[in-house]
Amino acid sequence: HTLARDLRGAVGGGELRLFLQPLIDVETETRTGYEALLRWEHPTRGLIGPDMFIPLAEETGLIVPIGEWVIRNAFAQAAQWSGGQSIAINLSPVQLDSPNLLPTIVNALAETGLDPALVEFEITESVLLHNSDANIQMLNRLHDLGLKIALDDFGTGYASLNYLLTFPFDKIKIDRSFISDLENREESRAIVGAVIELANKLGMCTLAEGVEEAGQLAKLREHGCRMVQGWLFGQAMPSEHYQPVPARSA
Ligand code: G
Ligand code: G
Ligand code: MN
Ligand code: NA
């Protein structure tokens, strides 16, 4: 597989890029941080999205050095921002199983001096399928370091509600499939409303993904959704595009 061979060289070859997508507070409509979304700038094929190479990276184990690159770079960038802007980072189940993860995070925190409260790790329901003690323990350790944990793409996998009690989630990210027909479908509104109410009662933040229209934002606000993300506010773009204000040096 030629893509696999190329991927092996991508990390050392400096071909990985971190794009940023703004995360927006519904009440103030201001940006509170960004999600880091990985891209591969392939020398001949051009820009490749994560859906095209993350599965391959997971199969080959390359996700561990790739994920390490993501963490180190995302932390380094976020440490340069002012105003307490946060950074959300996607974690693969394979990374969560790796003994490499915790030392990578601890070292990256020490090297950058980044406030752990500004870091959020996103995991999908597929992680919960294992529901292994080791995974629960790892997420608890990250949480104990002061890092935040978000449940990504909520509603699309096989999460059972007891996972919300088992894992230390700070936030639920409602999958964009529920947002796209929010205005036309009573049923979608019912589900989104119920998820937000549940999260609120459990003390978890809610973020709606894939918000593209003002009408969707209005409905989400009515339901008390706390945060949104989507093309209405900005696509995933190279960091220069958003020109996050650098922190003033003391
Ligand atoms: O922009 P979009 O095509 O960027 O991302 C598609 C999916 O790829 C996201 O839902 C996310 O789960 C995954 N993804 C993006 N960046 C990363 C990353 O750095 N690590 C992992 N493991 N997954 C990522
Ligand atoms: O980690 P996750 O699967 O949630 O990554 C978010 C994915 O959704 C990325 O592929 C990103 O590019 C995509 N995305 C972000 N905002 C929007 C949006 O408003 N509409 C659509 N269709 N996709 C979006
Ligand atoms: Mn995500
Ligand atoms: Na998602």
From TrEMBL:
UniProt keyword Transmembrane present: yes
Entry annotated with the keyword Electron transport: no
Keyword line: Membrane, Transmembrane, Transmembrane helix
Domain EAL intervals: 1-250
Domain of life: Bacteria
Protein name as it appears in the record: Bifunctional diguanylate cyclase/phosphodiesterase
Full-protein positions shown: 514 to 763 of 793
